[in-house]
């Protein structure tokens, strides 16, 4: 195997296996920085040995075993240092027990619980949303600091600081490595799902930069979503989020043209939609709806149900817009938001026409959350254009173009403004 191919293989193994390795080490050493350091040591050893010996048949197990041996060696050294200090002699028994537990842990296969604990640590509410996102991508997706920085168009130093501060915050607060108690689980799981969806959305519709989509981030979010439903098989909203991401990602190939230009839903070639992703999404949605049958669907399940209406429709005109409006009605009750109301207005325009929808949009004009939201004037511009009010439509599209930070979207909005000007 060529050296470049080998390094790509090792990188792929690392991205897949590093979360499991770090999670297992965290259980042993109870220190996030140390767990990541020991996992990196195992990776370095692989880079040194595998070129000569070849990639093992089970590279994940090799990395896990190597990392756990490193952890046991560390605990041994810690115990020996403790013996040199008489004043902590009473702690030796505890350290001995810890070492014994670590040795036992080296043979455990409790990967699922460990990963779930690691997810809840990375998404702990003590951390800012930016810190949670960076730490999640680092620990659970295996992305390097520079990759995270490129994905979110921020300096590498900024991402590095977020990760360092996040680890320090967790360490100083002595955050336990555990799944939250039952009464805390809904709120904490909601935070985890929110981070995963944020990662997906940044990949699906980038907020800034020269690309409309960043497929690698969508792929990482989907991987986390699949991991979550495996670790929390009784949580309806975990399946709801996975369904939503699968159904939205199914359109990825049709959302951009040959030069990377955006293609709106109504102009997409539906033959290019990924039918296997749609099938996976519909299957996850069915499971979410079964699990939510008693308590009622949550916001991700409802959004997935809306996405499913698009996925099942042969065309824009053949879409069940009445059902979509009804689903938005329920969603607005479950998770009230001006953005949801704006999206509902778009669905109303497709069901009942642009005039009724424009009244709904204008009623949202004073909502603080929409004042800097570029899709507000973009939606209004579309409705005005359909009503034949072309000058007003042009101004709205130009206003939306001035508000977006994504170059591709800006070009699309300016093109729509030009089209409106031509009548």
Automatic annotation (TrEMBL):
One of its GO terms (biological process) is DNA-templated transcription initiation. Residues 120-170 form the RNA polymerase sigma factor 70 region 4 type domain. InterPro entries: DUF6596, RNA_pol_sigma-70_dom, RNA_pol_sigma70_r2, RNA_pol_sigma70_r4_t2, RNA_pol_sigma_r2, RNA_pol_sigma_r3/r4-like, WH-like_DNA-bd_sf. Signal peptide: none annotated. Pfam families: DUF6596 (PF20239), Sigma70_r2 (PF04542), Sigma70_r4_2 (PF08281). Residues 15-79 form the RNA polymerase sigma-70 region domain. Residues 188-288 form the DUF6596 domain. GO terms for molecular function: DNA binding; sigma factor activity. SUPFAM superfamilies: Sigma2 domain of RNA polymerase sigma factors (SSF88946), Sigma3 and sigma4 domains of RNA polymerase sigma factors (SSF88659). PANTHER family: BLL0085 PROTEIN, BLL6612 PROTEIN-RELATED. This is RNA polymerase sigma factor. It comes from Luteimonas viscosa. The lineage of its organism: Bacteria, Pseudomonadati, Pseudomonadota, Gammaproteobacteria, Lysobacterales.
């Amino acid at each position: 195997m060529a050296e470049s191919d080998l390094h790509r293989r090792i990188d792929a193994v690392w991205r897949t296996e590093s979360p499991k390795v770090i999670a297992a080490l965290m259980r042993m050493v109870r220190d996030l920085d140390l767990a990541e350091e020991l996992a990196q040591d195992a990776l370095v050893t692989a880079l040194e040995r595998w070129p000569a010996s070849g990639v093992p048949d089970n590279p994940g197990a090799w990395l896990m075993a190597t990392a756990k041996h490193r952890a046991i060696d560390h605990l041994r050294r810690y115990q020996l240092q403790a013996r040199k200090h008489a004043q902590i002699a009473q702690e030796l028994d505890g350290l001995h027990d810890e070492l014994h537990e670590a040795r036992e842990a080296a043979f455990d296969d409790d990967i699922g619980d460990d990963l779930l604990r690691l997810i809840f640590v990375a998404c702990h509410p003590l951390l800012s949303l930016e810190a949670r996102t960076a730490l999640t991508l680092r620990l659970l997706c295996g992305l390097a600091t520079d990759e995270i920085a490129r994905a979110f168009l921020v300096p590498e130093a900024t991402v590095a600081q977020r990760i360092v501060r996040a680890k320090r915050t967790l360490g100083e607060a002595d955050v336990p490595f555990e799944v939250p108690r039952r009464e805390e689980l809904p709120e904490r799981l909601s935070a985890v799902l929110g981070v995963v969806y944020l990662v997906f959305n940044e990949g699906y519709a980038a907020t800034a930069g020269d690309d409309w989509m960043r497929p690698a981030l969508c792929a990482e979010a989907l991987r986390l979503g699949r991991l979550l439903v495996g670790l929390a098989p009784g949580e309806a909203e975990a399946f709801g989020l996975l369904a939503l991401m699968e159904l939205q990602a199914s359109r990825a190939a049709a959302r951009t043209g040959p030069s990377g230009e955006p293609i709106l839903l109504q102009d997409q070639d539906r033959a290019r939609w990924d039918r296997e992703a749609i099938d996976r999404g519909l299957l996850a949605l069915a499971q979410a709806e079964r699990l939510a049958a008693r308590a009622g669907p949550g916001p991700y399940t409802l959004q997935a149900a809306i996405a499913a209406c698009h996925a099942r429709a042969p065309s824009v005109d053949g879409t069940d817009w009445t059902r979509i409006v009804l689903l938005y009605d329920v969603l607005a009750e479950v998770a009230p938001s001006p953005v949801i109301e704006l999206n509902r207005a778009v669905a109303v325009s497709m069901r009942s026409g642009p005039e009724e929808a424009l009244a709904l949009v204008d009623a949202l004009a004073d909502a603080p959350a929409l004042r800097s939201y570029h899709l507000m004037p973009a939606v209004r511009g579309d409705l005005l254009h359909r009503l034949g009010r072309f000058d007003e439509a042009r101004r709205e599209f130009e206003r939306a173009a001035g508000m977006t930070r994504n170059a591709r979207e800006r070009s699309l909005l300016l093109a729509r403004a030009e089209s409106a000007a031509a009548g």
